[in-house]
Design a protein that fits this description.
By secondary structure, this protein is of the alpha/beta class. The protein has a domain at about 15-190 and about 225-255 and about 295-310: Rossmann fold (3-Layer(aba) Sandwich). The chain has twelve helices and twelve strands. The protein has helices spanning about 20, 35-45, 70-80, 90-95, 100-120, 155-175, 200-210, 230-240, 260-270, 285-290, 300-305, 310-345, and strands at about 25-30, 50-55, 60-65, 85, 125-130, 175-180, 185, 215, 225, 250-255, 255-260, 275-280. It has a seven-stranded parallel sheet, sandwiched between helices. It is globular. The N and C termini lie far apart (about 60 Å).
């Protein structure tokens, strides 16, 4: 493996193989928190002409709603991907507000992707699952892959069903569907999109902008977390792992570190002593209370070599550094623009 680089994950992956160069990849839900970072990483890995980004709105090369079977099938016939990274989803907190839409996208849309993949000869499908598949009867600490999956949210229920569909399609249709259970994902390159762990990104933006932060979770509500850089690298490594190394068709936990809001606040105040946080737990705290506080990802480490590289301290430092640099660059651009406008006015 190459050395860690905060600027991206491409340099951290093994050198490109002949198999890599033959991949054609379709990404659904490319405008989400993960998709915005995964697509550039895949393009760097396989070539821009071999990676097709799709979403139902926003900036995407293909406009695609995965609940539209005809459009989905037509897209696969046209693109002819070897892999699909199926990221289109309605996340946990948003899903509780609109459960019908969450079910339509998260399960029906995924079922459509699997059916179209079989019909169009796709070799691999990636399905991102979540710690939300676990319920209050699962062990809170070091939750193993084998823990009971009796979720309490519509998001978790759909994802748990999706894991079982992955195993069924693998057995019934020999479709190589691979599943990772993500914890909360934290990164500086994209904004979160309606999840329970969004606060762990928003808190850094508030700190850099000199704002007090109102936290929707209680101070000691620990949850598993993962750096975006680790998540992207781990996902690509997982999809490139030899089939004989994937021994759990229903999925693997992908762990990083565990942290509570007060832990993030402590790291931030190391760099920004006047940072202030207030705790106002809402419905998201109730959701988080049913989830694990930490993950046992020993199966992923054993079977296909998973290894996270960021911990709470190194990720917090990277978040503050990158967000701070982006804010400073934006301020400098605004100042230059203002000076240019003033000069033009004076010249007139």
């Amino acid at each position: 493996m190459g050395s860690i680089s905060d600027s991206g994950v491409a340099s951290e992956l093994e050198s490109e193989s002949t198999t890599c160069s033959r991949q054609r990849v379709l990404v659904t839900g490319c405008n989400g928190q993960i998709g915005q970072v995964l697509v550039p990483a895949l393009q760097a890995r396989y070539g821009e002409s071999n990676v097709f980004d799709s979403d139902m709105r926003g900036n995407a090369s293909i406009t695609l709603d995965v609940t539209d079977v005809a459009a989905l099938t037509a897209t696969l016939h046209r693109v002819q991907p070897t892999q699909i990274y199926h990221l289109a989803a309605v996340l946990s907190a948003t899903g509780e507000q609109d459960p019908v839409r969450a079910w339509q996208v998260n399960l029906n849309g995924y079922f459509n992707v699997l059916e179209a993949a079989v019909a169009c000869g796709v070799k691999q499908v990636f399905f991102p699952s979540t710690i939300a598949v676990y319920g209050p009867d699962a062990p809170r600490e070091a939750t193993p892959d084998s823990a009971p999956t009796r979720p309490t949210t519509i998001y978790g229920i759909a994802k748990a069903a999706g894991e079982n569909l992955a195993a069924w399609y693998r057995k019934k249709h020999d479709l190589d569907v691979r599943v990772l259970r993500y914890p909360g994902i934290i990164g500086w390159e994209s904004a979160p999109g309606g999840g329970t762990t969004d606060y762990a990104v928003e808190i850094f933006h508030a700190a850099i902008h000199g704002q007090d932060f109102k936290c929707p979770l209680g101070p000691d509500r620990a949850l598993p977390m993962l750096a975006m850089q680790d998540a992207i690298r781990g996902t690509i490594e997982f999809m490139e792992a030899a089939p004989e190394k994937i021994l759990q068709p229903s999925g693997y936990n992908l762990g990083g570190f565990s942290a509570a809001p007060m832990d993030f606040a402590a790291e931030i105040t190391r760099a920004i002593p006047n940072f202030k946080i207030d705790y106002a737990p809402d419905h998201r705290d109730s959701i988080a209370a049913s989830w694990p506080a930490g993950l046992d990802d020993s199966s992923a480490r054993r079977d296909w070599g998973w290894q996270p590289r960021y911990n709470l301290r190194t990720l917090s430092s990277a978040m503050l550094g990158h967000i701070g640099a982006a804010v400073a660059a934006s301020a400098a651009d605004s100042a230059c623009e203002a000076l240019g406008t003033a000069a033009a006015v004076n010249a007139a």
